[in-house]
Amino acid sequence: MDGLFTLIQSAIAFGTIIMFGCVGETLSEKGGNLNLGVPGIMYLGGIASLAGAYGYENAVENPSKVIAFIVALVCAVAASVFGGLIYSFLTISLRANQNVTGLTLTIFGSGVANFFGGSLSKLAGGVGQISVPVTSSAYKVGIPGVNFGILVYVAIVVAFVAQYFLTGTRKGLNLRAVGENPATADAAGVNIVKYKYLATCIGAAISGLGGLYYVMDYTKGTWANDGSLENLGWLALALVIFTMWKPLNAIWGAYVFGVLFWLYYYVPGLGRSSQELFKMIPYVVTIIVLIIVSMRNKRENQAPASLGEAYFREDR
Amino acid sequence: MDKNNVSINHVREPLFHIAKRDRIAKPKAYAIRTVAILLSLIVSAIVIVCITGLNPLDVYVSMFKGAFGSNRRIWITIRDTMVLLCISVALAPAFKMKFWNIGAEGQVLVGGIVTAGIMIYFGEALPTPLLLVIMLGSSIVVGAIWGLIPAVFKAYFNTNETLFTLMMNYVAIQFTSFFVAKWENPFGSNSVGIINSRTKSGWFPAIAGQQYLLNVIVVAIITIGIYFYMRKSKQGYEISVVGESENTAKYAGINVKWVIIRTMVISGALCGLAGFIAVSGVDHTISTGTAGGRGFTAIIVAWMSKFNAFVMLAVSFFLVFLDQGAKEIASNFNLNEYASEMVTGIILFFILGCEFFINYKIIKRREDK
Lengths: 316, 369
Known about the structure:
The structure holds two protein chains of two kinds.
Chain A (H helix, E strand, L loop, with lengths): L1 H29 L7 H22 L5 H29 L4 H26 L9 H8 L9 H19 L1 H11 L1 H6 L4 H27 L9 H15 L4 H20 L5 H7 L2 H16 L20
Helix pairs in contact in A: 1-6, 1-9, 1-10, 1-11, 2-3, 2-4, 2-9, 2-10, 3-4, 3-5, 3-9, 5-9, 6-7, 6-11, 7-9, 10-11, 10-13, 11-12
Chain B lengths: L2 H10 L3 E5 L5 H27 L3 H13 L2 H26 L7 H19 L5 H30 L3 H23 L29 H20 L1 H11 L1 H6 L4 H28 L10 H11 L4 H24 L6 H21 E5 L5
Antiparallel strand pairs in B: 1-2
Helix pairs in contact in B: 2-14, 3-13, 4-8, 4-9, 4-11, 4-12, 4-13, 5-6, 5-7, 5-11, 5-12, 6-7, 6-11, 8-9, 9-11, 12-13, 13-14
């Protein structure tokens, strides 16, 4: 029983990271932009929050929790929106290929993050590991008695809001129209460029919160150049498929992925090698979902029809 | 004309509009790309200066030294270029068909796993030439299978291949971790170590005293082969028709499903072969880093080269040069080696962006008299 409890607890802590990434990416994909730069954006958000918090905590004698919280949040959002803007400008305005641009953004983001993560303390003239105790403790604040930081709840709220936006508002309907058939949406008077830019950049900001949560809460304000955030970014992309582009599904889907991810830890008698096979399950499940969805071929479960394609009005 | 009329005109017509170019003169296209690369180097230089306060010229000079500073370094640059080129060439047919094979990373890894397995289990029993043939054959087969799976579902159910192949990467990565844990040597190191380090059984032999000459030969054969396959063969033509328009292909009597499957088998097989080269010809070990992100980088190489095999060589070389150079900077100036990815990212952004100015032209609003 105790094991089950801790499994669920670590699944929720883990799931929150990819839930942010997934909801952000869903928004972007609903606008027709397949952003393979999610891992890069999460990296940018994570490292920016760390750099901001580090700068603030070192500059001030008695850093305040509230300001540290805000500094890290603003830095994370700004950096991830910056990443989203690069992607949007290249794919929407300059109509560069989305897959290639997204992969480049991931290379760039991981380069920036691991570069600064590895040399932040050295550049600032310090020694040893970076640590931002005040900021990370600010992010650990949550409901008393429950061992989750505030962002765990924020993720759920964000998923609800995204679901409501997509299915319950006119703007959400417009955005979906842009993703399904931009030419029709354009003819109906929807500003394609504006919608695509906003969806991608706001989506990037949400994905970036995943990086913020990972750095400040999940790893308690430290940094390791081990590429784990990149793998989580790809897992978030997998989750978008798993949830069939519905943010509400992301809430339980992310926790299921969390359970699947940590399951090996709680299954008795696994050798180190078989543990690795267990970690494969989330991806295999995603593939199966992808196949079943395409076989059943129901419109409402599919990826947005124009996903991955640039829109050019004069293309006809 | 009166003033009113002019102002109305201005409201109606935007400042500029964009039109597709029918074609562009080659020198002009290359001029645009050159300007983009120069701009990207300037931006990278500004970033380097802002972060580190180093003289960017010194940095570029030491990059050059890092990639070409000695005979050994030149060979390492060549060696890494060959692996990247091999993967890019492998991807080109799939991309030409507009099949987004993002799964090169995984296809390379499974080829590498099989190669390493054969080296470990049969290294003592069989002579190296026979081993090489067996490893070549089996890495091709498993790579082909890894490419076949998403292709079949794409052909019959139109399953999204970008996402499918992306997921297959992670399945392959976990398989790699599984085998690394299984084969680890010495026990507890969590790595396979150099396989057959004493006997060098199953390693690419040195030719004319050059350790990596065989890599160059193998990749050159593949590159030239794919060049002719794409340009001169009927199958290559079918690939480009399917890529341009599936409906046209159907109308012309091309079996689209078969072309998709066949092309992905070829693409996966060559990626598997790249894994064979990476393990038997370069690393002599297997780890999750055997593909090292090159499966993703190769996508960018293939795309930017417009699938031209010889441009791919140049682009792969350029990226490996950046990487080697950046590693040198990292150790020279006491920086973190991830600086290379950052600079690569900046340069690629510019090159991607400049394609717009090659494919489209911007027409400014006509000024009224």
